[in-house]
Specification:
Helix content: 25-40%
InterPro entries: CheY-like_superfamily, OmpR/PhoB-type_DNA-bd, Sig_transdc_resp-reg_receiver, WalR-like, WH-like_DNA-bd_sf
Keywords: DNA-binding, Phosphoprotein
Strand content: 15-25%
Pfam family, one: Response_reg
Organism: Streptomyces ziwulingensis
Largest sheet: 5 strands, parallel
Shape: elongated
Order of helices and strands: EHEHEHEHEHEEHEEEEHHHEE
Protein name: Response regulator transcription factor
Distance between the termini: 39 Å
Length: 245
């Protein structure tokens, strides 16, 4: 399945996202998509969100620099040929700031010289258009792992076994079916290894920046997650601080 170049974004939107039943998903990754073809950018973001990732979208380099200065991203999917501020300059700025953010650069040119130049200015990976969406997902996953402390592929705590790649959760050997946001919240809590995670941290990792910071979506999601995980409860509320497992 290939994503069309910006000359055919409507077709890209129709063909981009993988089937909802796809099991090879990951979460606990925040991504910024920077692409001036809006339909293509929105289609990429929709596909990544179906992988339980928190995704923000901008359509020019100046907006990208603004978002990078405000939010912490694990991965930036960066089109090279951007208006206002060129993608190369956005990449250079990320490197100058010493941020742990990884950059996956996209370009319509597949020339070796262009790939080499992109990597030399600080991109961590390079993907020419048109590209297969499955490859984009795999590269984003790989880069996302490089921004965090290495942990076992399968997380286990309090009788819960969570496999980020297969998007599977088991409680005492019994599979638990979770919605993408529930899965993302559970993974953030398990990766904290017993530390308290605030509602604000959960919003930052599991939702995008358009979420109202005063919403009760975290409380509602945790409540539903507790119910699905069953008895005895494993998610502890720490009054005034957040949640932990």
């Amino acid at each position: 399945m290939e994503v069309n170049t910006p000359t055919g974004p409507l077709a890209a939107c129709a063909r981009l996202a993988p089937p909802r039943g796809d099991r090879g998903r990951t979460s606990d990754v925040r991504v910024l998509v920077v692409e001036d073809e809006q339909l293509l950018a929105d289609a990429v973001a929709t596909g990544l969100r179906r992988e339980a990732m928190a995704v923000d979208v901008v359509y020019d380099g100046a907006a990208a620099l603004e978002r990078i200065g405000v939010n912490d991203y694990d991965v930036v999917v960066l089109d090279r040929d951007l208006p206002l501020v060129h993608g190369d300059d956005v990449c250079r700025r990320i490197v100058e700031l010493g941020m742990p953010t990884r950059v996956l650069m996209l370009t319509a040119s597949g020339d070796v010289s262009d790939r080499v130049e992109g990597l030399e200015i600080g991109a961590d990976d390079y993907l020419p258009k048109p590209f297969a969406f499955s490859e984009l997902i795999a590269r984003v996953r790989a880069l996302g792992r490089r921004t965090s402390v290495p942990l076992p592929p399968v997380l286990e705590r309090a009788g819960i076994k969570l496999d980020p790649n297969r998007r599977e959760v088991f409680r005492d050997g019994k599979e638990v079916q979770l919605a993408p946001k529930e899965f993302a919240v559970l993974e953030v809590l398990m990766r904290s290894e017993g530390a308290v995670v605030s509602a604000e941290q959960l919003l930052e990792k599991a939702w995008d920046e358009n979420t109202d910071p005063f919403t009760n979506v975290v409380r509602v999601t945790v409540m539903t997650l507790r119910r699905k995980l069953g008895e005895p409860p494993v998610i502890v509320t720490v009054p005034g601080s957040g949640y932990r497992i």
